[in-house]
Fold this protein.
Amino acid sequence: MDFASFGFIFRFLPIFMFLYFVVPEKMKNLVLFLGSLVFYAWGDRRILGILLMSIVFDYVLGLCMGISRNIWQKRVFLAGGVILNLLIIVSSHQSTWVIPAGSLIYGLQAISYLAEVYRGGVKPQKNILRLGVYVAMFPQMNMGPVVRYRDIEAQLAKRSVDAVRIKDGVIRFIVGLAKKVLLANNICVFWNTVVAANPEDLSTLTAWVGFASFAFKILFDFSGYADMAIGLGQIMGFSFKENFNYPFIATSVKDFWNRWQISLSVWFKDYVYIPLGGGRHGIIRKWLNMLFTWLLIGIWYGVAYHYLLWGLWFFFWMILESSFLGKLLDKLPGMLTRIYTWVIIIISLTFFAADSVPQAWEYIQVLFGVRGVGLVDSMALFSLKSQIILIIIAIFSSMPWAHIIAGRLRSSESGMGMALLRVLEKLLPALLLIVTLAYMAKGY
């Protein structure tokens, strides 16, 4: 079920929230778990069997690791759980019904639980309902954030809700919904034109603007769903960590990945890179560990050669930055380092967006003027002119300027500043919701 749909907003969500808040505290997990099952079944009931069996399997493996005193037995239990959840992740790329996009999140969260139990960082969860809520909770199952078990363990047992958290959660959900509906689904119009054309029919400017629009689409898609998930979590008393921190102002590839899908980067660092040895065993071993980690990140996004090359592309630049390039970037003006990062990101999207490696290579050639119809054509100029307002809004929305302005108003010593902030906090979300719903009603 899509958050950005009338079925979710006006049917599922009101009924779920009503039940969630009227039941006693000890029954909220049950309502959340059953509501999550309904959320999945709304799309396809066949996924419920696999989901429930996986939860039971992870629950039993966690208990077995907790009971066992033999390290090799624990490793066997952990390996079994990891293999099961990786199969679910891989199969989700190959099937339309196993577990839709949620399997990518569910699999990583289940592995997080098993890994934490194996390390002894947390005790095995004896309450299967709490474990079921953790791995199947519907808010973050569209596109994250990936929630580590140790970060949410206490909240599964007890959490508090107040009017301020509910208000902040509602506003956060509205902002995420607007990002998805108003920005992500409109900024990609030019990208759709690029996709529909043969690479050799594109100009260099058309390719750059097209891939830039694709970058904004992905940002507003992913961060929009993350905002909606964090907002829903706040309403229910959960605290999910931030997943995006204005990645398009990054001054290096490393900085970009510290800002882009933060929970995913942290997950792979905690449960892949560091267990392999991290950088503790020499430079060659460090590079091999980084290579394996980036290959897995590529596979997580898609099981295909061009996704592997996408992972290798970022691995290459991370190696350069950790070796010598990072020190050089520190000495350059911020504008130059941001342009450098943007160029790396745009080129990476050729692997991400293409259907094959040869097509990605064709896009790269067009970006650098080797192929195509020249540097500039009428299509690029017309698209830029017709979408200039949307482009300005997209750029503004991807920068921290709104937060900076709000912070200054909040810290203002004048009563006028605080009064303006309170009005804007109430008026803007309401207007944003009205415009978003009206646009949805038109059939975006």
Summary: The radius of gyration is 23 Å.
